[in-house]
Design goal:
- The structure is a single chain.
- The protein has 171 residues and is mainly beta.
- The chain has a single domain, classed as OB fold (Dihydrolipoamide Acetyltransferase, E2P), CATH 2.40.50.180.
- The chain contains four helices and twelve strands, in the order ββββββαββββαββαα.
- The strands form two sheets. Strands 1, 2, 3, 9, 10, 11 and 12 form a seven-stranded mixed beta sheet that branches.
- Strand 11 and strand 12 form a beta hairpin.
- The longest helix has 8 residues.
- The chain is globular and about 45 Å long.
């Protein structure tokens, strides 16, 4: 079985054009609940296929279970419920985005992972008024591309949410 690879080089993204310095950041674009989201690539350790996830009893709905990632057991979360998005069946295009929180790796389920792109910091706009509730508190801003609007998530805020914090404390 051939493994699909997406390169997520975490370049600092400072470009100089003439006398004007343009700051860019690299983001990973992924799909979740029919919408496009992205996160700063510096917060992402790897992207892997959803292989075998073992369900853990008595956990909240958003905790899918645990999986073995290169010998380390990591928690796998489906953050759709934190955002108020409907649950969706997993497809072969689904991936686990591995990030780090509290000194340990955590996997976040995505419907698909599309690409890594460079974005000018000045092109990140404040979230639209149409984004409300919990999603607004986890959003850094929005990025308008020629094809779509991408919601930029603050993964640190997501992983430090009250719901996830309760699991960490063992509640």
């Amino acid at each position: 079985m051939q493994e699909e690879k997406i390169f997520i080089d975490a370049d600092d993204g400072d470009e100089k054009s003439g006398n004007k310095e343009k700051k860019t950041i690299r983001v990973l674009v992924f799909g979740l609940g029919g919408e496009s989201y992205c996160a700063d690539i510096r917060n992402i350790k790897s992207v892997v296929r959803i292989d075998s996830v073992t369900r853990v009893p008595n956990m909240p709905e958003f905790v899918i279970g645990v999986m073995n990632l290169r010998g380390e057991i990591i928690s796998v979360l489906d953050i759709r419920s934190l955002f108020g998005l409907p649950q969706k069946k997993r497809t072969p295009r689904g991936r686990v985005i591995v990030t780090e929180a509290w000194g340990s790796q955590v996997g976040i389920i995505a419907d698909d992972v599309r690409q890594a792109i460079d974005v000018g910091e000045s092109s990140i706009q404040p979230p639209l008024a149409t984004i409300s509730g919990k999603l607004a508190s986890y959003t850094k801003g929005e990025i308008q591309t020629k094809d779509e609007i991408i919601i930029m998530l603050d993964l640190d805020r997501v992983l430090r949410s009250e719901e996830i914090g309760r699991i960490k404390k063992g509640e």
